[in-house]
Design a protein that fits this description.
It is built from 10 helices and 10 strands. By secondary structure, the protein is of the alpha/beta class. A 10-stranded mixed sheet has the order 3-2-1-4-5-10-9-6-7-8, sandwiched between helices. It starts with 8 loop residues before the first strand and ends with a strand.
Length: 291
């Protein structure tokens, strides 16, 4: 999807609880990048499931009602964005279908997909709001931002956090994090969590040396292209989820790859990625590995 040859920022609007925090983040990012903003809302069609007593005309009427409610929600969201950024080009589109499928389709050709997610227990989130985020992240064709906590813009100097483990997914995350930090005039904390489960763990001394080598390598070639980004890199002991969640407390955003060396085969999203979605205290940006 393109608008005037540009790859828009796409925001998924929740029909039940539209998030102004999400809308503000997406609108600010689109304005910052000089890109149009596209607001999309998935309208689940009324079906026989759970509605056995309804006739087909009644189901059609219910579907039309859902579409009309979705269009109203989108119109209100667009008005909120226009008040915040009057000159920002905004388009809206209600799309029939399941949210994960709709968002996957909308991510094609997008610069960024922005989602919200209500903070639930880990068990509930796997089956409700979080399941849409996890499925969207796993299959999206572009980076995905999950916004359910505000940026910590009062922290000075501002900075992003990026999780590093040496995997191709991690390299893509680092590239994105450098660009994002440069765009904001922010610093960048590159963090590698050292834990006995880490694939490079042989003994503690050797693992630390290998970890510092991985961190040193991420600066190669990137400092020249992003000379204004102040980079710090740290090896911190602990489980990656706990380490990155703690580091996110005062960050603008936490950036991770969709699947690093800590992922498990068969999972939609690496174990670290799922963990930080639950525990990070700032927006989480997941970056797919280039194909």
């Amino acid at each position: 999807m393109k608008a005037d040859g540009q790859h828009p920022v796409v925001a998924g609007v929740d029909p039940d609880q539209p998030s102004r925090l999400l809308l503000a983040w997406a609108a600010d990012e689109a304005d910052r990048r000089h890109l149009p903003l596209h607001l999309v809302l998935a309208c689940r069609l009324a079906t026989r499931a759970g509605n056995w007593s309804m006739t087909w005309p009644e189901l059609q009427e219910k579907t039309n009602h859902l579409r009309a409610a979705g269009e109203q929600t989108l119109a209100e969201a667009a008005r909120f964005v226009a008040e915040r950024h009057p000159a920002l080009p905004v388009t809206t589109r209600p799309v029939d279908g399941e949210p994960a499928d709709v968002l996957h389709e909308q991510s094609t050709g997008a610069t960024l997909l922005v989602l919200g997610s209500r903070r639930l227990t880990a068990a509930r989130e796997l089956f409700t709001a979080g399941s849409v985020a996890v499925a969207s992240i796993a299959h999206a064709c572009c980076p995905v931002v999950v916004v359910r906590d505000p940026e910590h813009s009062t922290q000075q100097p501002p900075y992003f956090v990026v999780g590093v483990d040496g995997s191709p997914a991690s390299q893509a995350a680092v590239d994105y994090a450098f660009d994002a930090a440069a765009l904001r005039g922010a610093g960048l904390r590159a963090i590698l969590a050292l834990h006995p489960s880490h694939p490079d763990w042989v003994d503690e001394h050797q693992a630390e040396q290998d970890s510092r080598r991985v961190l040193a390598e991420i600066a190669a070639g990137r400092r020249e292209t992003h000379p204004d980004v102040e980079l710090t890199h740290e090896v911190l002991r602990g489980h990656p989820v706990a380490v990155l969640a703690e580091a996110s407390t005062h960050a603008l955003a936490l950036v991770v790859g969709t699947r690093g060396l800590g992922g498990f085969t068969g999972m939609l999203l690496g174990s670290v990625g799922q963990g930080v979605l639950h525990h990070a205290r700032c927006p989480v940006i997941t970056v797919p590995t280039p194909v």
